[in-house]
Amino acid sequence: MSQWSQVQQLEIKFLEQVDQFYDDNFPMEIRHLLAQWIESQDWEAAANNEAMAMILLQNLIIQVDDQLDRVSQEKNLLLIHNLKRVRKLLQGKYHGNPMHIAVIISNCLREERRILAAASMPVQGPLEKSLQNSVVSERQRNVEHKVSAIKNSAQMTDQDVKYLEDLQEEFDFRYKTIQSLEQNDKNSTLIKQEMLALQAMLNTLDYKRKEVLSKIGRVIHEIDMLMSNMLTEELLDWKRRQQIACIGGPLHGGLDQLQNCFTLLAESLFQVRRQLEKLDELLTRLTYDGDPIPVQRPQLLEKVNFLLYNLFRNSFVVERQPCMPTHPQRPMVLKTLIQFTVKLRLLIKLPELNYQIRVKATIDNNVLHSNRRFVLCGTHVKAMNMDESANGSLSVEFRHLQPKEMKTSAGSKGNEGPHMVTEELHSISFETQVCLYGLTINLETSSLPVVMISNVSQLPNAWASIIWYNLSTNDPQNLSFFNNPPAATLSQLLEVLSWQFSSYVGRGLNSEQLNMLAEKLTGQPVSYNDYQLSWAKFCKEHLPGKSFTFWVWLEAILDLIKKHILPLWIDGYVMGFVSKEKERILLKDKTPGTFLLRFSESNLGGITFTWVDQLENGDVTFHSVEPYNKGRLSALPFADILRDYKVIMADNVPENPLKYLYPDIPKDKAFGKHYSCQPNEVSKPSDGGGKGYVPSVFIPVSKILNDSTEPHSPSDLLPMSPSVYAVLKEHLSPTAIETAVSCELSHS
């Protein structure tokens, strides 16, 4: 079943979440019509490879054209109209930046997988629940409502200033007219009446000046209060959501809404600034005793400039954190001399700033807690513009930066232990200057802490550091965090571990799988709602009786799934995280031949299967094969191993003991679509093979001795053609076959 088909079967509350991230940037009708094709492409790789992204964009347009031809024949007018609009969008919006559509589609697919994983969980995790707090949603709506009201108030004040200007011009004209009269004319009754009218008009002018200043003051106060409270909280929440998204959590949205709020507030402040300038102009033409403008205007202007400075400083954000294109699922881990990308945005989108802001990138070295020093190589100064982003935001993306480690004063590079290196935090800093309407504002921002590695073998532990930091703190710049890393709540950690699976290999973990991980982390069954787990327990201390840590063990499983058993994992047929004791409880009452798949607890990156059998006396026995690692799985797909696996039981002919996947799914029904080819028991020498050779295949065979009821392991994979195997079955005794595949087996 396609991922999109699974999405369509979700409950309404989950479908509403899906609806939130499909918009005009990537319309849902295209996702629906091209579901299988979209899911078969590698959008993650294309998001960091411009040539690949361009090819996928062109192929996407071809697919849309094919759909257009189909619906045109069906005369579906509405769909024809929508597809033409989508085609125009794809060609116009993404032609200059094809990687952007790849990022959008990759994010959508990833978010679908996360929602599917969340839907399979009995309860929503604590972190995700906090991110979807109804109070937060209510605050977002309030911010947007208040920003709109402030914008309207500023525009209404514009009309008041214009009325004041017209009134003053009329007063000025009438006053100058009287001043131009002869002295004897000024004593006339008519002129005296006019003077009284002018005095009344001056009183009105004074009242209107005070009223306009009062309205301007209220607008400034409303902006100040909004910026100090709700808008600041919104920005901090967005940054926290970005942290969580970087470690596999829900896709962080809301930046476009924040941009709209920041831009409207900036426009309102500049509008108020122009109003104050107009009042200053009116002041030069007319002033009087008790005039409120010279008293109030300087204070109001100072406050407006102060708010503009703060608004601009807060609007300079890292939209996409540093990430190597080679490891899109591992942001903030950077390898020396390997390019990484990072994107910044100014949330104040004003046309006057297009190509006017040049951003400089540098590395903020952890001087206090590290002897290692780095510099950035590549283009580290670029101008922000509105042309590269599909949504027209004012942004800049650095695509060709490389960190380079500098030699120490002793003449050699810093040499520290592997854990020390992966616990050192640095950050990428950015600075620029905005010059606008007489204001000059210096802006600075930094990425979330990054880990610098010099060897790809350090990547797993470096990623563990990134996970722990962003799970444990919302402080964006605590570079000394690992001097004394805090404990993490086990329930939140397990939620993040499930995200590693949903984001990296397409399917999260259910409650039973998480319970097994909790027991492995703590060494005992626990109620993990308030259990605190240390950093050392997670990543530094070896598991009991093992030569590796919990995280290294888990990371090896992720790598195994990604490279060798991904379709089986996505289909949900790999139970995976289940102890040997629990698997026996699950299998003991099942039909003989029922088996389950679990990850090895003693071998890194290994997967095994255990099946239940029944002896002649009625006793139940269990058999487990030696775990298959990436070496074996590179030679033979795991689904084919399950199909072709054979066991030699003493004097019996080889047979496949695997009948039903737990609990009772026929094996071929579960794995049939993943077989590399349909099983072919016998193949004559003349049926295939080049130059007279019979095609050979690997057939996994195990031997189980009569005097043992313990689980046993497989022999090494034996290269054996189907026809040779058939001949062996027909013409050789079981003893001879046993000799051919003999290998002492041990308990796993």
UniProtKB/TrEMBL annotation:
<keyword id="KW-0013">ADP-ribosylation</keyword>
<keyword id="KW-1017">Isopeptide bond</keyword>
<keyword id="KW-0488">Methylation</keyword>
<dbReference type="InterPro" id="IPR046991">
    <property type="entry name" value="STAT4_CC"/>
</dbReference>
<dbReference type="InterPro" id="IPR036535">
    <property type="entry name" value="STAT_N_sf"/>
</dbReference>
<dbReference type="InterPro" id="IPR048988">
    <property type="entry name" value="STAT_linker"/>
</dbReference>
<dbReference type="GO" id="GO:0003677">
    <property type="term" value="F:DNA binding"/>
</dbReference>
<dbReference type="InterPro" id="IPR001217">
    <property type="entry name" value="STAT"/>
</dbReference>
<dbReference type="GO" id="GO:0007259">
    <property type="term" value="P:cell surface receptor signaling pathway via JAK-STAT"/>
</dbReference>
<dbReference type="GO" id="GO:0005654">
    <property type="term" value="C:nucleoplasm"/>
</dbReference>
<keyword id="KW-0832">Ubl conjugation</keyword>
<dbReference type="GO" id="GO:0060337">
    <property type="term" value="P:type I interferon-mediated signaling pathway"/>
</dbReference>
<dbReference type="Pfam" id="PF21354">
    <property type="entry name" value="STAT_linker"/>
</dbReference>
<feature type="domain" description="SH2">
    <location>
        <begin position="569"/>
        <end position="671"/>
    </location>
</feature>
<dbReference type="InterPro" id="IPR036860">
    <property type="entry name" value="SH2_dom_sf"/>
</dbReference>
<dbReference type="InterPro" id="IPR035856">
    <property type="entry name" value="STAT4_SH2"/>
</dbReference>
<dbReference type="Pfam" id="PF02865">
    <property type="entry name" value="STAT_int"/>
</dbReference>
<dbReference type="InterPro" id="IPR015988">
    <property type="entry name" value="STAT_TF_CC"/>
</dbReference>
<dbReference type="InterPro" id="IPR029839">
    <property type="entry name" value="STAT4_DBD"/>
</dbReference>
<dbReference type="GO" id="GO:0042981">
    <property type="term" value="P:regulation of apoptotic process"/>
</dbReference>
<dbReference type="GO" id="GO:0051607">
    <property type="term" value="P:defense response to virus"/>
</dbReference>
<dbReference type="GO" id="GO:0060333">
    <property type="term" value="P:type II interferon-mediated signaling pathway"/>
</dbReference>
<dbReference type="GO" id="GO:0051093">
    <property type="term" value="P:negative regulation of developmental process"/>
</dbReference>
<dbReference type="Pfam" id="PF01017">
    <property type="entry name" value="STAT_alpha"/>
</dbReference>
<dbReference type="GO" id="GO:0005737">
    <property type="term" value="C:cytoplasm"/>
</dbReference>
<keyword id="KW-0539">Nucleus</keyword>
<protein>
    <recommendedName>
        <fullName>Signal transducer and activator of transcription</fullName>
    </recommendedName>
</protein>
<dbReference type="InterPro" id="IPR008967">
    <property type="entry name" value="p53-like_TF_DNA-bd_sf"/>
</dbReference>
<dbReference type="InterPro" id="IPR000980">
    <property type="entry name" value="SH2"/>
</dbReference>
<dbReference type="InterPro" id="IPR013799">
    <property type="entry name" value="STAT_TF_prot_interaction"/>
</dbReference>
<keyword id="KW-0727">SH2 domain</keyword>
<dbReference type="InterPro" id="IPR013801">
    <property type="entry name" value="STAT_TF_DNA-bd"/>
</dbReference>
<keyword id="KW-0805">Transcription regulation</keyword>
<keyword id="KW-0804">Transcription</keyword>
<dbReference type="InterPro" id="IPR012345">
    <property type="entry name" value="STAT_TF_DNA-bd_N"/>
</dbReference>
<keyword id="KW-0010">Activator</keyword>
<keyword id="KW-0238">DNA-binding</keyword>
<keyword id="KW-0963">Cytoplasm</keyword>
<keyword id="KW-0597">Phosphoprotein</keyword>
<keyword id="KW-0007">Acetylation</keyword>
<comment type="similarity">
    <text>Belongs to the transcription factor STAT family.</text>
</comment>
<dbReference type="InterPro" id="IPR013800">
    <property type="entry name" value="STAT_TF_alpha"/>
</dbReference>
